[in-house]
Design goal:
Chain lengths: 347, 524
Amino acid sequence: MSDRRVQWQWLVALSPLLAVAAALAAGAVFIAAIGEKPLEIYALLFREAFGTGYGLGQTLFRATPLLFTGLAVALAFRAGLFNVGVEGQLYVGGFAAALAGAYLPLPGPLPAVAAVLAAGCAGALWGAIPGALKARFGAHEVINTIMLNFVAFALVSWAGRALFLPATVHTRDVAAGAQLPRLDAFVPVLRGAPVNVSLLLGLALAFAVALLLFRTRLGYELRAVGHNAGAAEYGGVSIGGTQLLAMALSGALAGLGGSNFVLGYKHYFELGFSGGAGCIGIAVALLGRNHPTGVIVASLFFGALSYGALVVNTRVPRELVEVLMALVILFAICARPLLERAARRWA
Amino acid sequence: MSTPHVHLKGITRRLGTCVANDGVELELVPGEIHALVGENGAGKSTLMKVLFGLHQPDEGEILIDGRRVRMTDPRAAMRHGLGMVHQHFMLVDTLTVAENVTLGSETQARFGLLAPGDAEREVAALAERYRLPVDPKARISQLSVGAQQRVEILKALYRGARVLILDEPTAVLTPQEVDELFAVLRALVADGVSIVLITHKLAEVKALATRLTVLRAGRRVATALVADTSIERMAELMVGHVPAPLTERSDEAPGAPLLEVRGLEVRDARRLPAVRDVSFAVRAGEIVGIAGVEGNGQHELIECLAGLCPPSRGDVRIAGAAVSGHGAREHRAAGLAHIPSDRLHRGLVSDMSLAENLVLGLQRRPGVGTGPWLGGHTLEDASRARLQEYDVRPPDPRAFAGRLSGGNQQKLIAARELTQGARAILAAHPTRGVDLGAIDFIHRRLLAERDAGRAVLLVSSELSEILALSDRILVLYEGRIVHETTPAATDERTLGLHMTGRASHGDSPLPPREGAPRTSGGLA
């Protein structure tokens, strides 16, 4: 029946929400298994993550790098590329931001601009390498981006030996002009939370990515390559050039994510600062269906889980939240094909 | 007539808001060839998908030998003795005929091992019984298209099919292969198999079928004996009105050459020459048709002319500009429009909207979009008129191209390629898989383009199309132009002989296969 079919289409479109619901339900079984009450734990988790100004600020702070990395993965996906190297791009971006912010002698707020640009450029370069290898030799970007993650970690550790402050694994502080202000300076209710201007940059970039993808010639070509490379080639699009560009842009987005921690929070680069934000970015893009709006919502959700894990830590081990994240990813992958098959069968 | 073998009773199937089948009846009696005809989107495919268990009907029932059955999936359909030969073959190229035929229902020897010898004997026996000449040990990749089709038929028979559904079986065959197929089908019917023949080609219905059922807009408009129904009447039933014959060609002399090819050699994916020393020119105001059996270099020639594959030798000029070695963008910029032979692989992006697909290839043009911007309401509004004019259904600029039927996808591509003001038009199989109404429409547009002074190169495996539209015809065989003629001076049978390299010396001399270059290659 037509009505029934329309309803199924809605269900398919809402599959990320169903995936989240299914993951929470499965997680409830784990919580019950260790003798806790699932509903109480979930209530506590989300109340703390969204219910207080400080908690919301913490959630937003943790969502910020995921917003950048989620956008990075989504943009590459739109061009048909799986950028698994966002972690490494984020890492070199953060390192470049710390160096530019600490060592460039610039007046006024210019150091902040320079540091942000440095983060973007370093990430772009790190993304462009596998992009160029793909475009020129057809080398698979998944392999190369994974490998370049390790290269990034090793390279930064090596460079850090000369730059880190004695007996630490972090650089010196960036100049005052390079620091991004915290949002609680403008929104008192967030008092004490480390969420900073980097979030606004991320939101602006989400808007920019949406505009690029759906309203520009370049975005058109990028999506055409991603959906049907044969047709894009027929339409006069340079496949390799577009892939290279998409990987560079994706890397730039990931690199800019380094600004959150380095310029807005600690004000220095520290080994291991990225903390898996790159990998979770893949989950964010997946759950957000590679759409900037979806990525914003998904990064908020993962940010809430990440902060909520600390809050509920006294009652359930924080690893539970990692299980929950993994479940969301599993269900997000399965939900769509399962629903589509069901829709075909019954509609 | 005896009890129907298969009886589809009052089948209604809705797809979204449209009714694809509306109370359709179809009876198939043992030993008949029943033609199912209708335009694209008339509901033929949907009906067969319902019968084959790929769709569930919203209303109505399916009776097999008088008993009501529920076709839950294709396996259930096969259990009930149904077999389907799809338009696009479902064969594994690297396996042998016997392996393909038995795939999924292999007879096993001890310890679960395969017994290839048994399979080959079984398949050989089956082929013998139904007089389907094919070598069980041959690999699919070595077989001609006609032989591959016979393998598909064997596959269905091996699974015990007593009812064969053939979807556009002649679309990919040469006239000679069509004759062979018809002989096979007649033999099968004599053996008690019944056949549903889905087709657009009414001459084939006349030649082969006993009865026909005509669908129009999801409804059955007629079921009749073929002997009692003229082709004109069939066409009228299909489209609801009699299509007027194509307008007379204007006799104006062709003008300047707009698409020139000299000494062209193109290599295929295996680096072997697929187009060999081809030279011709298409001038303003003429349509040059390229006839040939598929796989004789047409694909490589088209890809090369479109800038999708560089020639290894020779050059291409579009409106006087040398473009060989440049990409598709440069070819388009020089004034070429291109209706590609494979709409799903080349011509469309299924996951993009109709409005977006209407600018594929033009996405960098100044008039399309402003500055760096492209998309949104401006793009959608700009597409509405053309979707209406080319009768793309549904004419919704935001619908995804992948949701259109094949015929409508083809009209969408025509709407894009024939309205961009190109001086030379490369039309590769422009009406493949398209219904009568749309074929007529696209043909008229191509003729109108010619009359407007464009140069049109038409590549088609439909000889009737080549004969109806072309001013000159070139025959491509094994990568060379082996024959040049005009529609007035030839017919399908003669062309068919040239296409298969079997032209007798009396008709027209066949050139030497290797060696001396041809002079009658049509260099204008």
